[in-house]
Amino acid sequence: MENKVYILAIESSCDDTSAAVMENTRLLSNVTASQAVHEAYGGVVPELASRAHQQNIIPVVDAALKRAGVDKSQLSAVAFTRGPGLLGSLLVGTSFAKGFALSLGLPLIEVNHLQAHVLAHFISEGKSDEHFPSFPFLCLLVSGGNSQIVKVLGYNKMEIIGQTIDDAAGEAFDKCAKVMGLPYPGGPHIDRLAKEGNPNRFTFSKPHITGYDYSFSGLKTSFLYTLRDQLKDNPSFIEENKADLCASLQRTVIEILMDKLKRAAKDLHMREIAVAGGVSANSGLRQAMQDAGKRFGWNVYIPPLGYTTDNAAMVGVTGYFKYLDKDFCAVDAVPFARVGV
Ligand code: KG4
């Protein structure tokens, strides 16, 4: 009886080329090559991302297998991110995964990037004090491309109960950072500067939309107009007030995110609450989750920082659960740029 499943996982949806090796849910290695080439452009340039993935993919997979101490002959399957993401970037990981699996006669597993962010909570590092969410749980999924509240009923059963109708939370951070002249991606810079600033110094508009949906475009415009108006009188306004601007913006984003999450948790009587995606690296959001946990008696699950932004470990753990369901895909599976969980 086979009781150990070894999955090679590949993630290439945006600007990180990542490969991981899992033994069941346990992570053996996770190697990521980031792409500094985009910094000069203030955002990810799709064509440059695809080219960098092509350069990185073989060394990254090779390093992941070596670090895991797993020979390719031991692998049970190859999992890859099929989408959503940048099509050219996805094509590199998808094509590599197909070629690799075909040459070894291994089954292929396609993984939805958003589902993978949620299931990052089940990655085991083999420590004795690990806690995993129990079903059903709510997950606030916040990244550069998505802001959703997901009701997670099982490893392969999720329902989006709310999502952004325009910009994602990460996008709001990044776009506001850009107008302040901060490097891309701006989220981590805002987080760092916010620590020194007054979160109540500026007020920006918050959306009024029904249900559990989000909207961040009004906040972005309100931030932009504040800068435009203040810069008329004082050209050094941004430089002189950067920390307060960052702290006030971060407070507003967190309030918007947490208000809907709290409402959903209350309405659905849920106490198992998780956060995932790149923006879950934000120190203010992590603190707000802990505070809400204490206040409302939630069991809060916050991923280790390494599993918040794009990584192949989350693709590997999702691949493992799909492997157990024998949910394999055909070799003609094509990447997709957009879609929900
Ligand atoms: O999940 P992710 O790596 O990529 C997507 O799948 O979108 O998320 C990237 C996003 C970017 O918008 C980045 O600015 C944001 O996550 N981010 C942060 C922080 N770290 C990353 N936003 C706020 N605070 C952070 N510390």
How would you describe the overall organization of this protein?
The chain has helices spanning 46-68, 87-104, 113-119, 169-179, 187-194, 217-233, 237-267, 283-296, 312-324, and strands spanning 6-11, 16-23, 26-34, 77-83, 108-112, 137-142, 147-154, 157-163, 272-276, 299-301. It is an alpha/beta fold and 341 residues long. It has two domains: 6-128 and 307-324, Nucleotidyltransferase, domain 5; 137-303, Nucleotidyltransferase, domain 5 (2-Layer Sandwich), CATH 3.30.420. A hairpin with a 2-residue loop joins β7 and β8 (157-163). The two termini are 33 Å apart.
Describe the secondary-structure layout.
Layout: E1 6-11, E2 16-23, E3 26-34, H1 46-68, E4 77-83, H2 87-104, E5 108-112, H3 113-119, E6 137-142, E7 147-154, E8 157-163, H4 169-179, H5 187-194, H6 217-233, H7 237-267, E9 272-276, H8 283-296, E10 299-301, H9 312-324
Parallel strand pairs: 1-4, 4-5, 6-9, 9-10
Antiparallel strand pairs: 1-2, 2-3, 6-7, 7-8
Bound molecules: 5'-O-[(R)-(carboxyoxy)(hydroxy)phosphoryl]adenosine.
Residues 14, 143-145, 170, 173-174, 185-188, 191, 277-279, 281-282, 309-310 line the site of 5'-O-[(R)-(carboxyoxy)(hydroxy)phosphoryl]adenosine (KG4).
